[in-house]
């Protein structure tokens, strides 16, 4: 069944007037008609069954009927990723949403090979991935900041899995053994890796746990998928 993220509050008998983009998607792409059912969620009120009430040229109206799942809280896991080229970054955001990350934080490092990105486009990709994977929330994509700013503003109590491509750290599963479940973040560097100064700075942080993702050098998108998978398998909601 089609799932749709909406910003509105959800409750029985609520009527939703969808925006033009969502209306076009349901009417022109998915060919829904009055009386057809779909699922809606907003990240706060759980998942609800809704019925198409009317289909106009530019607007589709839904009638919210009954809750199908209560709101659930997923792992408190951030993916911190250095800016990379657009196609790879879009893949990373999509896979982070599929793998249960709560937030995707973008960071600028000394060797970052991209200096800007469209956060609104990345957020739309996160929404689409959440709709398709069945999760009840949408990961937030956060505007890029420099690495030093990220470290300076680091929230108390959040651990950091620093994926160190130098390869002399402990394997990730071993590094995560015995660690508390939440909150955490996973840090993936740029295609050129962290500079020696950045690597030394990260290694001295009390909240950081260096780890290796194996004997081969991974591209940023592969590394992000691997690290999130290992964290979920050891500390997340896969256990």
Automatic annotation (TrEMBL):
Subcellular localization(s) per the UniProt record: Cytoplasm
Pfam families assigned to the protein according to its UniProt record, in alphabetical order: Methyltrans_RNA, PUA_4
Keyword DNA damage assigned: no
CDD domains attached to this UniProt entry: RsmE-like (cd18084)
Alphabetized InterPro entries for the sequence: Alpha/beta_knot_MTases, PUA-like_sf, RsmE, RsmE_MTase_dom, RsmE_PUA-like, tRNA_m1G_MTases_N
GO molecular function: rRNA (uridine-N3-)-methyltransferase activity
Domain Ribosomal RNA small subunit methyltransferase E PUA-like: 18-64
Superkingdom, taxonomy of origin: Bacteria
Catalytic activity line of the entry: uridine(1498) in 16S rRNA + S-adenosyl-L-methionine = N(3)-methyluridine(1498) in 16S rRNA + S-adenosyl-L-homocysteine + H(+)
Residue ranges constituting the Ribosomal RNA small subunit methyltransferase E methyltransferase domain according to the UniProt record: 76-232
E.C. number: 2.1.1.193
Record key words, sorted: Cytoplasm, Methyltransferase, rRNA processing, S-adenosyl-L-methionine, Transferase
Principal place of residence: cytoplasm
NCBIfam families noted in UniProt: PRK11713.3-5, RsmE family RNA methyltransferase
Function of the protein: Specifically methylates the N3 position of the uracil ring of uridine 1498 (m3U1498) in 16S rRNA. Acts on the fully assembled 30S ribosomal subunit.
Family assignment from sequence similarity: Belongs to the RNA methyltransferase RsmE family.
Name of the protein described by the UniProt record: Ribosomal RNA small subunit methyltransferase E
Source organism of this protein record: Phenylobacterium soli
